[in-house]
Specification:
By secondary structure, the chain is mainly beta. It is built from two helices and 34 strands. The strands form nine sheets. Strands 9, 11, 12, 14, 15 and 16 form a six-stranded mixed sheet that branches. It has a five-stranded mixed sheet with strand order 18-24-23-20-21, with no helix packed on it. Strands 28, 29, 31, 32 and 33 form a five-stranded antiparallel sheet that branches. A hairpin with a 4-residue loop joins β20 and β21. The radius of gyration is 36 Å and the shape is elongated.
Length: 434
């Protein structure tokens, strides 16, 4: 072959290769909503073949381990899948009115999860940065589906109006669309955000819903709530068999307040009686939890964390309500058979040692930097952790001064009129005498 004929040969080879490629396009297989699904979901398999000049294809679907095609449609839906449907799928196509065939698609694996506890997928709800907040803080609720992250739409609820352990319902959050991507953020929390939250997720058509998530509480403390939760003895940690009294005292003397509680085991119930706003308990460890006042309309105020420890354990004596900036904070490490004066202990904040071998810990002027989790250690053991919240100073005094000024300004016109009338009367009396 002459060298002058070589380009012509290469061109012919190129054309043959081009025709083979054109005659044999490769099929592409997609699975929705995800390659990892859960028992009971609906799954759609779709085969796409891109080839110029072909108006329609007849499709062939295959599952690994089987030699026969189970469908000729472009889309095939597996409804309410089970573990039997798991495996690798592939597809190909033949031109409906012609002789062209496609290459087989890549095999795509479908995984179907089974559950030993529930018939539906599980969701997990978490909180960042923490459950205990002060008015104005930012918080994010994070909802995740175990083993999957694709295609989910999330719904958010607050548990509301429960009357005892077993009767409550999930009230949808009015602005839950903010949490469509699995994160629900409140940039500035208010007292009304106090409560217990859950989430769920769904995807697909028809919609497949997960189980409701675990509960996550948010506890918001404020500067001047309309009701006070009075606790006796006034401390956050207690020994078993101690007697504890809690009562809701409204500054405006209105009625209808009840003491509610949310225990560590996730149970919510009334602590006070149906007719009163006072709760008295002979404590056991199962009484550990958060207690608060709830109005007749369902508003929650003044949450406090109560921890009940073993009679032979160690507890931290700390304030049950937020401490005001500038105030003195005093902590004691208590052991049932030892008086505070004879006690020697180490005190910790957020896991770091802050004071060693002292009978008590005193902070003379509390600031926001002192906010955190505190606990103590002594030879007999370690106390549970207690969250100490610090609120801004000056709010109450500013309100008091404002009220005084407001009442003074409001009464000033009446005082002025009274003085003018007295002066006029004196002048008239003087004229009459003359």
């Amino acid at each position: 072959m002459e060298l002058s004929q070589l380009p012509l040969v290469l061109l012919l080879i190129s054309n043959i290769h081009s025709e083979d490629t054109e005659e044999n396009p490769k099929a592409n297989l997609t699975i929705t909503p995800d390659l990892h699904v859960f028992r009971g979901e609906s799954v759609t398999l779709r085969c796409d073949i891109n080839a110029e000049g072909v108006s329609s294809w007849q499709y062939s679907w295959y599952k690994e381990g089987s030699d026969y095609a189970f469908s000729e449609l472009q889309e095939y839906t597996l409804r309410s899948v089970t573990e039997i449907d798991a495996g690798k799928y592939s597809c190909s196509g033949t031109e409906s009115k012609g002789s062209r065939r496609s290459l087989m698609s890549d095999a795509v694996p479908l995984t179907v999860s089974d559950f030993s506890i529930s018939d539906r997928a599980q969701t997990a709800l978490s909180v960042s940065p923490q459950n205990w907040l002060t008015e104005g803080d930012s918080v994010t609720l994070i909802c995740e589906v175990y083993g999957s992250s694709t295609g989910w739409t999330f719904s958010w609820y607050i548990i509301s109006h429960y009357s005892d352990h077993y009767y409550f319902y999930y009230e949808p959050l009015s602005d839950s669309s903010r949490g469509a991507e699995g994160k629900y953020t409140v940039s500035s929390v208010a007292l009304k955000h106090t409560g217990v939250y859950v989430c769920e997720a769904e995807r697909g058509k028809p919609p497949y819903k997960t189980e409701m998530s675990n509960t996550q509480p948010l506890w918001v403390t404020g500067v001047s709530p309309p009701v006070s939760l009075v606790i006796s003895p006034s401390r956050a940690q207690h020994f078993t068999s101690d007697s504890l009294s809690l009562s809701c005292e409204d500054k405006s003397n209105s009625t209808g307040w009840r003491v509610r509680r949310y225990t560590d085991k996730g149970w919510m119930s009334d602590c006070s009686s149906e007719t009163g706003s006072t709760c008295t308990i002979s404590l056991t460890t199962s009484d550990t939890g958060v207690y608060w006042c709830q109005s007749e309309s369902g508003e929650n105020y003044n949450p406090v964390n109560i921890t009940v420890h073993s009679l032979f354990g160690v507890i931290l004596e700390s304030p049950v309500h937020p401490v005001t900036e500038g105030d003195t904070l005093t902590l004691h490490c208590l052991y049932k058979s030892t008086t505070p004066a004879k006690l020697r202990a180490d005190f910790y904040k957020d896991g770091s040692l802050v004071q060693s071998q002292t009978s008590e810990m005193i902070i003379t002027a509390v600031s926001k930097s002192h906010e955190g989790f505190y606990y103590c250690k002594r030879p007999e053991g370690e106390s549970p952790k207690s969250w100490i919240s610090v609120r801004a100073s000056g709010s109450d005094s500013q309100i008091s001064v404002f009220n005084i000024l407001s009442s003074g300004l409001a009464s000033f016109p009446y005082l002025l009129v009274t003085v003018v009338l007295i002066v006029k009367c004196c002048r008239m009396r003087g004229n009459t005498t003359e």
